[in-house]
Structures are given as structure tokens and as C-alpha cells.
């Protein structure tokens, strides 16, 4: 009798345990759309709750966006939701930056990705090559490409197909603190864009006059550190006339003489000021995750820096009384034309998106006239829609002359190894600014590391 | 009592590969399997299967999407010529070689302090254990401030002592060591295990030693330390495994810099897998790390025969 009962228990327990196991596993992958929209570490900024009958579009933006930009985009999403009651866009901030899209990749792979993602445009080709993005050709109306700036459109193309809608762009320029220059005995009028461009040699002289040290020899203020904020490899490379890619031979060209010159400029600068002391200065006043209100230009630790035009909106928010000006990035030789470069972001639909049609309608709005106009006015980025360049009333006064630089502005080659190329150039720049490697050697290793990975895509049709 | 006594005489599992169990034994086996079925299922689905897939991917080119392309040993060949692979391996071994022994010493000191026969010891235990409760990620953010070259507490102390200040995280010569220092804030975790080990040492050994005139130092050297060796071995193996996987600190504080001096192995693996979409290459890196960990663990076990004492007698 006893034995029979225990036998029965076994046959009840065994299937029950198995069923529970399967149930637990199934629950892990399930859940409704509302929860899926918010991954771990994600934060809903707008949308979320609302009309249950509306189609829900989940839109992720990476956390690298500053508060001013994020608020503006949130506003754009809210206006879209108001004007389109049949669609509800839920905007979620997820961890990520320009080249780190791990959250997107793992979510898409796991089948819980968003419908729309805001991606740094110069990496669109790379993500398209990876197979993460949907080809948007089917959604696009005839002639759409012609409405956007040519370079911006070339960045959304891979292998002859469009994978994104361009959102914003920008230009890089020299920001300078008039009060700090005056204190150092430099007339800030010299830097006024109305008075033309200054040379890099002159920049060196002005910067040296601002430098201050304490008793121990540590810098407490510097005229400039050429590689903070937007003073990148691409910045100085373009300033010295460098080219980063040769479409004919399908080769990355980090050892192009202009790029090497740009790196040489940073190397010499560091050498003259003592690389370890400059590094200590940067680590003190520009620590990781430094908030914009503690930006060294705002706190007066540096008098000049290369920044992106949208920095104007951060000054407006965090230091509205700052006594500053904006001018062209200095040039190597007198009489040269100014040089700068432009980037920007783009909206994409990842593979596996549940609502691609509704997602595209939202993208058309955000990357269209309505969205871009708001974004330019509120954040002082530049639009990628050509016709908005003529609407002077949406630009801050100081922004207008920078807008005129767009036609001559450079852009990074949109390569399917773009993110890695950027990171390798950044590593080389670090080696050079620490004077650990000479520009030629550092850049040669960039070529050696990136080229083999590019080769699998050659020949390459860029743009 | 030895383990063999538990094996039913009739099973003959190893010899015949065929179960010959009584009804009771079979029922017990099934019941046991039923009870651990959630674990079995999880183990197969979330451990065995991914490990198998990563091995296959290590012989492929795979972006994480689409179909993997079989390329044989290509990923492993590329690894050998990849300077950053060697650099990251060096950084990781450097970190492990310093962090593990320092961790043993730090944990031992904390455990001895926690073991003092004073009334308020529970307060001390809480304080010493507290940093281990914080997520490493929060500690990393705090450390960035403690290590600020100008305003940080560490440099303040150095300057007060008349020493030159150090750019802890910004100087390639110091950055790795700074992360080793940070790791010691987690010593409380291991110290708890050490504390349990210390409490398990019979008091009469100390009493006997005292009668023979042994001082505190001799007691520690000849009783405490030898009897703690099994626990130390455990913590060394654990530290080795975790040390080779160091990631978060570099990800948050230095992004692998300056000049790749904190580019740790798993961080470089992460970059390849998730930033550059080279899942195949990243899988190959994971397997190489697995083999290295295995070899190191085996060497430690072999070496431990010389210094670990399992028996009291």
C-alpha cells in the first residue's frame, strides 16, 4: 500500500517539476510589449502609457546625448504623439555611445529590439554590413535623397541601398573665452571671425600666454589642450589637409601626409608642455563622465577649445553669462581656407522591428522638417535638410557664420569598419599625445589593424 | 567514512554503462532527477549549449546576424598576430599576478581583525565588510574621485607626506596598479570565508602552543597559517578566475586607456564582439582565455600540494 502511494507521488511530482521548469523558461522570454520596450538599464523618457489601441513604436536613444539634446528630442516625440493619435512612440534612453551599441545588438539578436534607434551616422554602413539594419528603400518616396545634404545622405548608404534617415549635423569651431584672453594680455578681437583666420603658430603663442602653473609645476589653467572635446584625430587631420580613405584602392589612409601632420601637431604640443603634466591636467579637470556644467571652458580651466557648434546650447543652459566667442579652427599657413568637419546622427529601423511602417512614419517626422526645425532651434545643431539652411530665424546669431561653413566641411568616410577605424585612431592619438609613439608609427599600426578588416568588403561603393 | 560507501554495490555504472537498479533505486534516481530538473534544464540550455555554440563560432566569421561563415583556424591565426591581443593578455596577467596575492594578504589582515575577541567586534566586521556590499561599478565611480590627480584624497595624503603626486588613472605606468588597488576594496568578501576558517581552528592548539611558550607571531606562522592553507587555496583559485575576467573597472574608469594600459582581455573581447561585430573572433578569444585559466588553475593545484595542509594530524 505504502509503496503504491509513493509510486503515485513520483508520477505526480516528475511531470509537475518538468512543467514548472518549462513554464519558468517560457516566462523569461515572454512578457508584453510594454516591458520589452525597456531593457535593463533603460529609462522611459516619454510615451509608455497611453491609448492601448494605438500602434506602439519603441524608440531608443543612447545615453551619450546630453540633457539639452535629450529634452529636445523628447519634445519632438511628444509633438508627434499628439499629432498622430493612431501611433504612440515610447522613447527609452539606453546605455550606449557613438561606437558602443552593445545594447542594440544584443536586444536585436534576442528578438526584443526597438522599432527605431538613433545611430551615429558614420557607423550606419558598419551596422548595415553587420546585418542589424533594415533596408529602408521600400519606404522612401522618389526624390527624398535630393532633399538632404549630399554628404549626410552618402553616410546612410551601404552597398547602394539606404539604411537610415539623416537627422542632424554640426560643424566644429574654435570656442574662446574673451575674459581669460584679456587677462592674459591678448586682445580677443584678434580672434573675431570678422578679422579672418589665425594660424596655428599664432594659436600656440596665444595659448602659451594663458598657461598657469602652481608651485609644484602642475598646470592650473591652460590656453588650450588641442585634444579635448572635439579636438580629434579627424579634426587636426582635416585641418592639415589629410585624407582618410582612398576609394580607388579601397584602402584606409591614416598615413596620408596631412593626417600625419595633424598628429605631429599634437605630438609637438604635448612635448613642449610636458605630456605627463598635460595628461594630469586633463585628468583633473576633464575626468570621465564630467558633467557639462563642469566643462573646462565653462569653469575657466582652458581659454580655448575646439568644440561642436551645439556647445552654444550648453553654454546657454549652464553658463548664460559666459564671455566667449566662436571662430574658425586655425589653419597651418596664412591665407589658407578654413577647414572643419561634420558628423551627426541618423534614425534606423533594426531588424526584427515589430512596427516598421509606423516606425518609418515617426522617422519621417523627426528627421523631416518639423523635427529638425525644433532640434536646430533648441540645440544649435545644424539640419541635414537643405531647405532649412535658409531659415535664418532658427539659428542663434553666433551660429550663422558657422552654418556658412557647411559647404566646405569634411566628413568621415562612411566605411563598414567606421567604428573600429575611429577607435583605432583614438588609441593612436592617445599614444601620440602621451609621446609614447611617434605619429608615423602610431598611424601605421592603425592601417595595419583596420585594413585587413576592410578588405572583406572591397571593392566598396561609398555613398 | 569514504565516498565509495555511498555507491550501491549493484550499480556497476562505470563497467557496463547500463543501469541495473532495483525498483527502489530507480525510483529514487528518477525522483532525484525530477527535483534537480530545473537545474539540469538550465545547465543544458544556458551553459552547455552556449559553450558549444561559442566553440563553433570561434571557427567562423560571424557579425552576430545572418549565417556564420566557416573559416577554420583563421581567427586563431589572426589572434597570434594581433598586438592588442598580446597587450591585453599581458595587462590581464599583470593585474591577476598582483591582485590575487595582495587580495590574500588584505583578506587575511581583515579576517584577523574581524576575529579579535572584543565586545564591539560586530561593528568592526560591518565596517570592514561594507565596501564589499557596494557594486564594483559604484566603487569605480568613487575611486575616480579618490584618484583625481589634484583633488583626490590619495594624492592629498601623498602630498602631506611630502611625496610627489601621482596621476593614478592617467599615467600608463600607474593605471593598472590603480585598478589592482581598487580590487582590494572587495577583500571583505573573501575575508568572511577566511574568518570562518579561523573560527574552525581548534582553540586547544593555541593553548598547547602558548604552554610551550610560543608568541603571537609563532602561533600565527605555525598554527594559523598552515591550517588556513585550504581556504587560501580556494581563494587563490577563485581570485585567479575572477582576475582573468576583470572588466568593469576598465570599462567605467579608463575605457582601456591610457595608451591601452588597462585594455584587459575581456574588455578587448567585448569590444570585438559587441562594438566591431566580430563574434567569431571574440569567441576564439574566449576559448583561448578558457584554456589559459585551465592551465593556470592546474598549475596552482599542482603547486598547492607543496603548501596546502588538509589534515590536522
TrEMBL record, chain A:
Pfam families: SBP_bac_1. InterPro entries: Bact_solute-bd_prot1 (IPR050490), SBP (IPR006059). CDD domains: PBP2_UgpB (cd14748). This is ABC transporter substrate-binding protein. It comes from Rubrobacter taiwanensis. The lineage of its organism: Bacteria, Bacillati, Actinomycetota, Rubrobacteria, Rubrobacterales.
Amino acid at each position: 500500500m505504502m509503496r503504491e502511494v509513493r509510486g503515485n507521488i513520483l508520477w505526480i511530482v516528475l511531470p509537475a517539476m518538468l512543467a514548472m521548469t518549462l513554464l519558468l523558461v517560457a516566462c523569461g522570454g515572454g512578457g508584453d510589449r510594454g516591458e520589452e520596450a525597456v531593457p535593463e538599464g533603460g529609462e522611459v523618457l516619454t510615451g509608455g502609457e497611453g491609448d492601448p489601441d494605438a500602434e506602439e513604436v519603441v524608440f531608443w536613444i543612447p545615453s551619450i546625448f546630453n540633457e539639452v539634446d535629450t529634452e529636445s528630442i523628447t519634445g519632438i516625440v511628444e509633438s508627434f504623439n499628439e499629432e498622430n493619435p493612431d501611433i504612440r512612440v515610447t522613447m527609452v534612453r539606453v546605455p550606449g555611445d557613438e561606437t558602443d551599441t552593445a545594447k542594440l545588438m544584443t536586444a536585436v539578436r534576442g528578438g526584443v529590439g526597438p522599432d527605431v534607434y538613433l545611430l551615429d551616422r558614420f557607423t550606419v554602413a558598419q551596422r548595415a554590413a553587420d546585418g542589424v539594419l533594415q533596408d529602408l528603400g521600400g519606404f522612401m518616396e522618389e526624390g527624398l535623397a535630393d532633399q538632404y545634404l549630399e554628404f549626410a545622405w552618402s553616410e546612410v548608404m551601404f552597398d547602394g541601398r539606404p539604411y537610415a534617415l539623416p537627422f542632424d549635423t554640426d560643424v566644429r569651431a574654435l570656442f574662446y573665452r574673451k575674459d581669460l584672453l584679456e587677462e592674459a594680455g591678448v586682445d580677443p578681437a584678434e580672434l573675431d571671425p570678422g578679422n579672418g583666420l589665425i594660424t596655428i603658430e599664432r594659436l600656440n603663442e596665444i595659448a602659451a600666454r594663458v598657461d598657469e602653473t602652481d608651485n609644484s609645476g602642475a598646470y592650473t589653467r591652460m590656453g588650450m589642450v588641442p585634444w579635448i572635446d572635439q579636438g580629434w584625430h579627424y579634426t587636426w587631420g582635416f585641418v592639415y589637409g589629410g585624407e582618410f580613405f582612398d576609394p580607388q584602392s579601397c584602402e584606409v589612409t591614416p598615413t596620408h601626409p596631412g593626417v600625419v601632420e595633424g598628429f605631429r601637431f599634437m605630438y609637438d604640443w604635448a612635448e613642449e608642455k610636458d605630456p605627463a603634466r598635460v595628461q594630469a591636467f586633463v585628468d583633473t579637470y576633464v575626468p570621465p563622465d564630467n558633467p557639462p556644467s563642469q566643462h573646462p571652458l565653462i569653469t575657466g580651466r582652458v581659454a580655448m577649445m575646439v568644440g561642436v557648434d551645439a556647445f552654444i546650447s550648453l553654454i546657454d543652459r549652464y553658463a548664460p553669462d559666459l564671455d566667449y566667442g566662436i571662430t574658425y579652427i586655425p589653419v597651418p599657413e596664412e591665407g589658407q581656407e578654413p577647414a572643419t568637419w561634420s558628423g551627426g546622427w541618423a534614425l534606423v529601423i533594426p531588424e526584427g522591428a515589430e512596427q516598421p511602417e509606423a516606425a518609418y512614419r515617426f522617422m519621417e517626422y523627426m528627421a523631416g522638417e518639423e523635427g529638425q526645425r525644433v532640434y536646430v532651434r533648441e540645440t544649435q545643431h545644424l539640419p541635414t535638410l537643405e531647405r532649412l539652411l535658409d531659415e535664418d530665424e532658427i539659428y542663434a546669431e553666433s551660429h550663422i557664420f558657422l552654418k556658412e561653413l557647411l559647404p566646405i566641411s569634411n566628413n568621415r568616410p562612411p566605411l563598414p569598419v567606421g567604428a573600429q577605424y575611429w577607435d583605432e585612431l583614438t588609441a593612436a592619438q592617445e599614444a601620440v599625445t602621451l609621446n609614447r609613439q611617434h605619429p608615423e608609427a602610431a598611424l601605421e599600426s592603425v592601417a595595419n589593424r583596420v585594413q585587413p578588416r576592410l578588405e572583406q568588403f572591397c571593392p566598396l561603393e561609398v555613398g | 567514512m569514504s565516498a565509495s560507501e555511498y555507491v550501491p554495490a549493484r550499480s556497476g555504472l562505470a563497467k557496463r554503462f547500463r543501469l541495473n537498479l532495483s525498483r527502489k533505486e530507480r525510483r529514487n534516481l528518477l525522483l532525484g532527477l525530477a527535483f534537480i530538473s530545473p537545474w539540469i534544464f538550465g545547465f543544458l540550455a544556458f551553459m552547455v549549449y552556449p559553450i558549444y555554440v561559442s566553440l563553433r563560432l570561434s571557427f567562423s566569421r560571424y557579425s552576430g546576424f545572418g549565417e556564420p561563415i566557416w573559416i577554420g583556424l583563421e581567427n586563431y591565426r589572426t589572434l597570434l598576430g594581433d598586438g592588442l591581443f598580446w597587450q591585453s593578455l599581458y595587462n590581464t596577467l599583470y593585474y591577476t599576478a598582483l591582485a590575487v596575492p595582495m587580495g590574500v594578504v588584505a583578506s587575511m589582515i581583515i579576517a584577523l581583525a574581524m576575529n579579535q575577541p572584543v565586545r564591539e567586534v560586530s561593528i568592526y566586521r560591518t565596517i570592514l565588510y561594507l565596501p564589499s556590499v557596494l557594486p564594483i561599478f559604484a566603487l569605480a565611480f568613487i575611486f575616480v574621485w579618490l584618484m583625481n590627480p589634484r583633488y583626490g584624497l590619495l594624492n592629498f595624503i601623498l602630498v602631506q607626506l611630502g611625496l610627489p603626486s601621482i596621476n593614478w588613472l592617467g599615467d600608463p605606468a600607474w593605471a593598472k596598479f590603480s585598478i589592482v588597488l581598487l580590487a582590494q576594496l572587495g577583500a571583505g568578501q573573501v575575508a568572511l570565508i577566511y574568518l570562518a576558517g579561523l573560527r574552525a581552528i581548534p582553540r586547544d592548539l593555541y593553548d598547547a602552543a602558548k604552554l610551550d611558550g610560543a608568541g603571537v607571531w609563532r602561533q600565527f606562522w605555525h598554527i594559523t597559517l598552515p591550517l588556513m592553507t585550504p581556504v587560501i587555496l580556494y581563494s587563490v583559485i577563485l581570485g585567479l578566475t575572477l582576475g582573468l575576467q576583470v572588466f568593469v573597472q576598465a570599462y567605467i574608469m579608463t575605457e582601456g586607456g591610457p595608451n591601452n594600459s588597462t585594455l584587459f582581455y575581456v574588455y578587448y573581447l567585448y569590444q570585438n564582439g559587441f562594438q566591431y561585430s566580430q563574434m567569431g573572433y571574440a569567441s576564439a578569444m574566449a576559448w583561448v582565455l578558457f584554456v589559459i585559466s585551465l592551465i593556470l588553475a592546474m598549475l596552482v593545484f599542482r603547486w598547492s600540494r607543496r603548501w596546502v595542509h588538509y589534515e590536522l594530524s
